[in-house]
Write a structure and sequence with these properties.
By secondary structure, the chain is α+β, with helices and mostly antiparallel strands. It has a domain of about 120 residues. The chain has seven helices and six strands; from the N terminus they run ααββααβαββαβα. A four-stranded mixed sheet has the order 3-4-5-6, with helices on both faces. Strands 1-2 form a two-stranded antiparallel sheet. α4 packs across α7. It is globular. It starts with a helix and ends with a helix.
Length: about 210
């Protein structure tokens, strides 16, 4: 009956398209349903440095993320606006670090809000994704563009009771330690500019 309504060549193409659609639905259906269930249970963590606004936790692995088409759909449906990379206190520390590092060795650079996944590698995929999206406030990078030291700014409320900041810091510390990268803390209200300068003079190799 179909052959009378649709030419043979077109009929073959139509059948091929229908088969392709069915195969795609069969292969991607379970994954999309699993992802939607996970997406419905996504949780956020407060960011003390940015005024307590919740930010989404990155999935544990690449396969857990929606595909590019779904990401584009979400982005097109949302609004975005620019915001400062650092708050006022962090910006003040950043400027002090820049001056001190440049005076010690101008070939070294100060980087801000760097994800560990950008400068750490591990053959253990699950371990890597445990630190991949975690950030250090400041990274001291040498002339070879290799991070040598990480500096964390501990603002007020960073270790409030019941918070997960200490646990996240422990994960970062261990990963950095294993990579041979130093970890240092600058505490709000305690670390003076003079102490920060002395720390830089100790960490940065002179030119």
């Amino acid at each position: 009956m179909l052959e009378k309504l649709i030419p043979t060549n077109n009929l073959a193409v139509l059948i091929g398209l229908l088969v392709a659609v069915i195969v795609v639905q069969v292969l991607t259906g379970p994954r999309r349903r699993t992802w939607k269930r996970r997406d419905g249970k996504r949780w956020t963590r407060g960011d003390n440095r940015k005024g307590g606004q919740g930010v989404p936790i990155r999935p544990a692995a690449e396969s857990d993320r929606p595909d590019a088409a779904e990401q584009l759909r979400r982005v097109m449906a949302a609004d975005f606006k620019s915001c400062p990379l650092l708050n006022k206190s962090e910006a003040a520390v950043f400027k002090e670090l820049e001056v001190a590092v440049k005076a010690r060795n101008p070939t070294w650079k100060v980087m801000a809000q760097v994800s560990l996944g950008e400068f750490l590698r591990s053959p253990d995929t699950s371990a890597f994704f445990s630190v991949n999206s975690k950030r250090v406030d400041f990274a001291l990078m040498d002339e070879a563009c290799r991070v040598r030291h990480a500096i964390e700014y501990q603002g007020s409320g960073h270790h409030l009771p019941g918070g997960a900041a200490a646990a996240r810091d422990a994960v970062k510390k261990e990963a950095l330690r294993k990579a041979g990268i130093g970890y240092h803390e600058v505490v709000a209200g305690h670390t003076t500019p003079a102490e920060l300068k002395r720390l830089v003079e100790k960490l940065v190799v002179g030119s």
